[in-house]
Amino acid sequence: MAISTGGSGGETPMSDINTTPLVDVMLVLLIIFLIAVPVAIQTIDQLRIPIIESTESKDKVENLLLTVSTTDEAGRSAGDPGFTGASRNGECRVYFNNITPVTSEELYDDAFERLDSIVKRAGGAEQILEDPEKIPQVHIRGDVQAPWQCVAGAIYNVQAAGYPTVGFISNPVDPNG
Questions:
Q1: Parallel, antiparallel, or unpaired for β 166-168 and 138-142?
Q2: Strand order in the sheet with 92-96
Q3: For 129-134, which contacts have Cβ atoms below 8 Å and span 24 or more sequence positions?
Q4: For residue 50, what is the enclosing H or E element?
Q5: Distance CA 132, CA 86 (A)
Q6: b/e per residue, 84-107, with b = 16+ CB within 10 A?
Q7: pLDDT tens series, the chain, 177 aa
Q8: Contacts 24+ apart (CB under 8 A), 53-58
Q9: Number of neighbouring beta carbons within 10 Å of residue 109
Q10: CA distance 6 to 173
């Protein structure tokens, strides 16, 4: 039997990292995430927006009001005859200033034009930034049945249009029960 002692004629010690444990850990993490992601998505779809007591807000005329809802099971929008209420599987509907239905592109364009006119009326961006109370906000009233994707799309469009603050309006709760 012969033994190598790493002398002058022998092999040099191996200095490469052993990647087998790294690959094993990555495969285990991949399996865990493959199992956990569908569970997390199902949990989000069942999310219910809480109804909390709301207080009177001091709305400025410049604030933008949005209502986010969906069509009913038959594809009818709010205001259409026979509308039975928003459906979880309906198409997203966004109402600009709680009245005018708009698409995503129209929401971005209308919100941008509205904010631009407010900034120009205030004397420019520098003037409006001097007093944070002058900066308009977006208030979203989301239907309980509206999927989170609808609300998230509305938030994305108004923030892309330049509105820095987005808030939510809740339904008032009768304090007497």
A1: parallel
A2: 100-102, 92-96, 64-70, 138-142, 166-168
A3: 133/60, 134/62
A4: none
A5: 36
A6: eebbeebebbbbbeeeeebeeeeb
A7: 555 555 555 677 777 888 888 899 999 999 998 888 877 666 655 556 555 555 555 556 678 889 888 888 888 887 778 878 777 788 888 988 878 889 989 999 999 999 999 888 888 888 888 887 778 889 998 888 888 888 899 999 999 999 988 988 876 665 555
A8: 53/172, 53/173, 53/175, 54/169, 54/170, 54/171, 54/172, 54/173, 57/139, 57/169
A9: 14
A10: 81
Whether the CB-CB separation of 113 and 81 falls below 8 Å is answered with no
The answer to whether the pTM exceeds 0.85 is no
Residues 6+ apart with CB under 8 A from 44: 148
Cα separation of 71 and 113, whole Å? 27
Strand partners, 68: 94, 142
Helix count (H) and strand count (E) of the chain?
4, 5
